Fold this sequence. Notes:
The chain has 168 residues and is of the alpha+beta class. It has one domain (7-161). Helix content is 45%, strand content 15%. The protein has helices at 18-24, 31-72, 79-105; strands at 109-112, 117-124, 127-134, 142-145, 154-155. Strands 1-2-3-4-5 form a five-stranded antiparallel beta sheet. The longest helix is centred in the first third of the chain and has 42 residues, at 31-72.
Amino acid sequence: MPNTLLPGAFTSGTFMDHEDHEENEQKLFSLKEAERARRELEPVLIEAMENRGKVVELDEQLGAVANRILMMGGITIEYETVARVRAEHNRLLSQIKDALDRIHATGCVVKDLDSGLLDFPAILKDEEVYLCWRVGEDRIRFYHRQDEGFSGRKPIDPEDTGPKHPIQ
Length: 168
């Protein structure tokens, strides 16, 4: 994996290895299991989101340096400062990757790191769906079919969580 990524590189789960994603897709969550995982993963996700914001700022700084080199040559560049920024950038990228790996290892899918969107594969009425949660929501209240995105979210019907239903 390269050390630098474009600003949008952490959205839609693109930061993980596809092989890991396929393995973890097989995990199906009950609503209770998804809620337990959500509570454990929320601080990990928030830290990754904060680090993502810092990476964007450092990307801008490094882009400005690259522009200066292009326009004026490398003579006016403070190499030690740039090296520190680059090291911090790489450290944060590593922390983000570790956080996303930890989240994906549970079977949960990070759909959008920028908005803090997590999906938990589940079965609802004999159909594979995602239980859907976003940072700022107090609990998992929505689901959507796997071929739908965030805009297709529907509220979970309380009857769908009864003792005889698969997402219990």
